[in-house]
Amino acid sequence: MKQAGDITLHPAYSCWMNFKTYQKSADQSIKKYCRFILTKISSRVVNTAVNELSAAIEGIYHIKPREISENHDVPCIELSIEENNSADSNQVCGFTIKHINEKTTDKIVISGTDECAVLYGVFRFIFSLGLGKSIDNIQTEQKTYNRLRMINQWDNLSGDIERGYSGRSIFYENGKITKNYARIRDYARLLSSVGINHIVLNNVNVHEEETKFITDKYLPELKKIAAVFSDFGIRILLSVNFAAPIVLGRLSTADPLDKDVQRFWHETANKIYSYIPDFAGFLVKADSESSPGPYTYGRDHAQGANMLADALRPHGGIVVWRCFVYNCHADWRNRKLDRAKAAYENFVPLDGRFKDNVVLQIKNGPMDFQIREPVNPLFGSLEKTNQVIEFQITQEYTGHQIDLCFLPSLWKESLDFDTAAKGKNSLVRDVVNGKLFHTSTGGIAGVSNIGDSPAWTGNPLAQANLFGFGRLSWDPALSCEDIASEWATLTFGSNVATVEKITNMLLRSREIYEDYTCPLGIGWFVNPDSHYGPNVDGYEYSHWGTYHYADLKGIGVDRTMATGTGFTGQYKNENAQMYEHIESCPENLLLFFHHMPYDFVLKSGLTILQHIYDRHFRGVEEVVELQKIWDSLQDEIDPDIFQEVRHRFELQLKNAIEWRDVVNTYFYRKTGIPDEKGRYIYP
Ligand code: GCW
């Protein structure tokens, strides 16, 4: 029974599945099918599907459907598994929603390739109601693009979330695993509704106590959480500490070639599977930002990953191994050093050496989740290795869920990038799903943006990023426009003007954020540690120089083969040439690839310096516009959500003004070149 003060009553809690909102949009032509749910399948996930469907029908049409297992020739919704495919374990997950109307039969059939697909079909059907589809346009057939559609929680046992901006963890509290199953269940439901099928439950930085997650101390509790996710077709993984054999006090080494170490991991895997039979595997951050790894023992990452893969193989588990490995920063004394080159240098030589149950997890860009980066050149360069692309849904460098920043715009750029690895149309999305190089598995991973805040994501508008991540991981060919407007309709109702305004705000937001922060692909103007707010020279790794090399005359990193770090050479021919030359380098990445004089004239006719000034002014003006649009929606939006978002826009404006003033003043002082329009800020 829900009590006043119950967080589930918060208007933003139900996210894109608020059935009160759906009531207004739902078409009456579907109502007559909703009295009966026909299914002959009995399984946990299909039971979930039936329950979800019933709850939605009740919430939307105020009918309590009856579950039947025989066809009584009454209009109904039937759930079934497509017979031909159910035995084929390699079958790509997919579903169809059909309206069958012939002789005595008039029904809607939702059928899937397996039980999880039935659940996805049901959620899609529920979305269709929120989108106002009628019986005439409800039919659809969908197959997922990616086998792995994975969320990474960066949650710690303390209840903190690394780079989390939405409150505390829903999984952990004060050094304990919570029993917050109702909330965890609601999270599983949200994730499953957009097609997520894997979740990593703990931070990739595995601290001492979390290292024990793979022991009897924590597995009984983790098993319960796994069961909650399992009902929604989501399998769990754990981040593990490569040095666990030592940290847990069993051995004096974690050398992957050591027999005792191998035995340790085999026994550990056996134990985990005895608790959690559908456990999906390990996520590993090794030799990175002080995490231990195989390099300590003179071994390479293939040896490290394969050792774990061997332990998991008998149980069908996988090792997801991160490529975020680097050992240098910017250095004014040696400008040939380049962190951007590190992932490629560490992993390309290992291509073909990873076992087939190893998947490399590669950040979308070569640096670290900046507002604009080129695609990581590892994509297209690894031909014999399973891969997933890693995105950050949480807004570490993109506004901490205070500032509005719709990230599918950024993710789409990576997914649609043509690596040219096998001629034209060698898109990143086809590399990671395995199609381009015929690798066995792959997909998309995203670092979660949720916590225990009533709206899940702090800023209710940041829910669009979680939704968009799920939708893109299911189908990366979707457009940002479709994702944004679908989310806006499901969340705020089908009023066309409202949906248009919100869609428009979302679609503009990434560029606006870029305008008042880091121009032309340069990145790294942020405050150290927090990574929010401006500090042009202050980044934490700036002892030997900043990542932008701004001096009196110019700014940017020369990453060319001709005179710079040679990073451009990590791309395939056409792309290498495109980035190598100033004329063909996309302007929005110019300073990522080239050190340029401030008076270089861009295509707009403006100098780089003028561009920096103008964009920072424009960014602030655009935030004011966003605010105005939001204010115009006051009568359309729930008052609590309205105020919450309004408050965030006030903070965003403050932030944007600070960015504008700090960045523009910095460059004015640095260059002494007067701005032609006199539009700089000077104390
Ligand atoms: O961007 C950096 C973050 C770290 C994070 C690391 C990583 C989990 O600042 O907080 O650690 O990336 O991705 O491993």
UniProtKB/TrEMBL annotation:
Alpha glucuronidase N-terminal domain residues: 15-125
Domain Glycosyl hydrolase family 67 catalytic: 132-456
EC number: 3.2.1.131
Quaternary organization: Homodimer.
UniProt domain Glycosyl hydrolase family 67 C-terminal: residue ranges: 457-679
GO biological process, alphabetically ordered: xylan catabolic process
Protein name: Xylan alpha-1,2-glucuronidase
Entry similarity comment: Belongs to the glycosyl hydrolase 67 family.
Active-site residues per Swiss-Prot or TrEMBL entry: 289, 368, 396
Pfam families for this protein: Glyco_hydro_67C, Glyco_hydro_67M, Glyco_hydro_67N
GO cellular component: extracellular region
Keywords of the record: Carbohydrate metabolism, Glycosidase, Hydrolase, Polysaccharide degradation, Xylan degradation
Catalytic activity: Hydrolysis of (1->2)-alpha-D-(4-O-methyl)glucuronosyl links in the main chain of hardwood xylans
Lineage top rank: taxon: Bacteria
Molecular function GO labels: alpha-glucuronidase activity; xylan alpha-1,2-glucuronosidase activity
